[in-house]
Every structure is written in C-alpha cells, then in structure tokens.
Amino acid sequence: MIKIATIAGSDASGGAGLEADLKTFEEYGLYGMTAVTVIATMDPDNNWAHGVFPIDEQTLKAQLETIFKGVGVSAAKSGMLGTFHAVELTREYISAYSIKNYVLDPVMICKGNDEALNPELNQAIAEKLLPLAKVVTPNLFEAAQLSGMEEIASVERMKEAAKIIAGRGAANVFIKGGSKLPNPTEALDLLYDGTHFELIKRPFIKTTWTHGAGCTVAAAITSGLARGLSVYDAIVLAKKFISQNLEGSFPLNSWVGPGNPTNWRKNTLFT
Ligand code: PXL
Question: Among 255, 235, 219, which Cα is nearest to 21's?
Fold first, then answer.
C-alpha cells in the first residue's frame, strides 16, 4: 500500500482541509494519514463565520512523529498551517525525512476573504517551505503574496510571479488562474518547472459555492506523485479529478457547497 500524509487544518464541515485531502487520497487508492494543525469551525448562527483553533506544538509534533518516524510516506502535502510552530515543524519533518514528493499548498485565505490571514506567517511559509517543495500550488492571491507582486490578473503576470517563486526555491510552480482571469469560460493554470512554461486549460466549471477545491487539487497532485507520476502528468490527472469533483458539487446548507470526490467513479477518469 502506498502511504501519503497531509499536514493541514481540519474543516469540521468536511469539504476542505484534511477531510478533502483524505477523501482524495482514498479515491487514488492510497493509505492516508493526517497531522492536524488547526481545527476550523463555522458558525451556523453567525453567517457561517470561520473560527480557527490551533493545535499546540507538542500535539502537532507527536502526530508528525507517528507519521514520519512511525510509518513513513511516499509523498506529503501541507495545507492550512495557521501558526509559526506548524510552519517550523513542517520544515523540520519534511527535511529530516527527506520527503522528495512534498506539495506545498500555501493556504492563506478561505473562500470569500481577500485579506491574508497573517502576512508574517505567509513570509515564513515562503522562506522555510518553498525550498522544500516539489510543487507549490498558489492561487492568484497567494502567488502575489509569495512573489511580492501586486495584482496578478494576466498570463504574463502569472509567468512573472512563477519565475520569482521558483527563484525562492520551489522546484515546480503551479499557479491556478481560476475565475479571476479575464476569460472566465476557461480554467487556465500555469506550470513552471524552472525552465519551461506549460499552460493547462480546461473548461471552467461554474458552481454556486465550491469549497475545498484548492485543497483537493493539491491532494490529487500529491497522490499522483505518490503513485510515481511525473509532475506534469500528476497535474493533468488532478485537473481531471477536480473537474469531475466540481461537476458533482452540492449544497450543504445556504452558505456552502463542497465538491464531490467520488464523482469521477461515474465517469472515466483513469482512461
Ligand atoms: O479552502 C481553504 C481551507 C483550508 N483548510 C481548512 C479550511 C479551509 C477553508 O475553509 O477550513 C481547514
């Protein structure tokens, strides 16, 4: 059995965070493990406002010992880290256990917020984790934060940002254009491997709420790498997976709707 881990927040509503990661690992036929960094909750009496409850350093370290020392993994990803000690411990374990297939999802905002949760934490993520990342998966906002650029709203600007982020140490930079680019009928993402740019296009799937798509894409890329795919092939497969996931998205309540990680089974993802 191929083993894989996520160092990420728990989303009590189940659509994002490590819950999305685990569901994705499962669909790829892998054995998933989790180190919980924060617990995110949503308040049904206050417009689904997010609460974030950090896990203390000792408890996080004990989880990482279990996973990396106690079991071992073929690949790992990190998502919402939330604290400086989570950034530092992630750096420590990914490097001490020489995890080559490490995917950094630099989660800086939750859907709907355009403010970085903590700019200093984002800088720590850039400095300590980019040099370890086989792939980093920022959206346009996160790419601006990681590159120090202002607004990114064109493919040319995405390329500029990708070069800067690669210069900060990431082996491959995968910037998700999403719905914020001028032509919203197309989901346009950019992969830069330090030498070549590759534009990856798929039809844009319009959903009402989608929640957890970024987590799912990064988890799917990590899963592909764990299975031995190249970075490019892992990304192309992850894009198929997220398209089918989003085609099956559904409402949880009037605020939020996750994707459906099992939806690909109805189609032919792996053919
Ligand atoms: O989608 C970003 C995200 C990541 N991780 C956790 C979250 C969210 C958004 O809600 O709760 C734990």
Answer: 219
| Closest protein CA for atom 6 of ligand 1 | 17
Ligand 1 centre and the CA of 17: distance in Å?
Answer: 5
Find where tokens 């009590």 sit. 12
C-beta separation of 178 from 137 below 8 A = no
pLDDT, tens digit, 9 for 90 and up, residues 178-212: 777 877 778 899 999 999 999 998 888 877 778 89
Ligand 1 atom with minimal separation from the 213 CA: 1
> Which domains are assigned to the chain?
3-266 (3.40.1190.20)
pTM over 0.70: yes
Residue with CA at minimum distance from ligand 1 atom 1: 212
For the chain, list residues with pLDDT below 50: 111-114
